[in-house]
Q: What sequence folds into this?
């Protein structure tokens, strides 16, 4: 089972989510891929994610997280004991997201939503100071990420499998080149 967690203001319609879903369909494993629309509230987002994978044995679960979804995926992997793939993950999002408090919209639908100040405090509950069992993690980080510093990612996931892409961007625009490696780590491809 793969649970895909999108980033801030993103959705299951993101390019990486769609490419992963399409590849799972090509492999005849669509039923093993879940990509929910996450609520703006971190607490509600993690409650939803946990409910979606309740009962799935950790050895049969991988969480793929992009940006803020990578932050969430790390916390869930630590809590559940499963594997995680991190795509340009946020390390300390409460610092970066403070400037986004207020009304904003989703990238893929322009649907408005409110990011409340209390959500910054909710993010604290999901901080992972240091990962345990680095072998459960695969980091895909781009040096050209215009939103987050890849060096923070590399340091935070020290000891984990890492692939640093020279250049690229926060979206990892060439993700199609990496989807099979991601799924292989998940035990699918």
A:
């Amino acid at each position: 089972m793969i649970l895909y967690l999108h980033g801030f203001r993103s959705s299951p319609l993101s390019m990486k989510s769609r490419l992963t879903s399409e590849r799972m369909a090509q492999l005849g494993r669509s039923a093993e891929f879940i990509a929910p629309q996450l609520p703006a509230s971190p607490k509600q987002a993690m409650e939803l994610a946990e409910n979606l994978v309740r009962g799935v044995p950790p050895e049969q679960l991988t969480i793929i997280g992009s940006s803020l979804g990578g932050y969430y995926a790390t916390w869930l992997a630590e809590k559940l004991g499963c594997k995680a793939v991190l795509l340009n993950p946020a390390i300390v999002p409460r610092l970066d997201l403070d400037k986004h408090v207020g009304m904003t919209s989703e990238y893929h639908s322009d649907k408005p939503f409110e990011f409340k100040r209390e959500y910054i405090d909710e993010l604290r509950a999901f901080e992972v100071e240091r990962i345990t069992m680095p072998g459960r993690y695969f980091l895909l980080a781009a040096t050209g990420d215009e939103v987050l510093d890849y060096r923070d990612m590399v340091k935070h996931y020290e000891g984990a499998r890492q692939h640093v892409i020279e250049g690229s961007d926060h979206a990892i625009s060439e993700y199609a080149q990496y989807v099979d490696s991601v799924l292989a780590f998940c035990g699918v491809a």
Helices lie at 15-26, 42-53, 68-80, 93-97, 117-124, 150-156, 179-186. The chain has a mean pLDDT of 93. The longest helix spans residues 68-80. The chain has seven helices and eight strands.
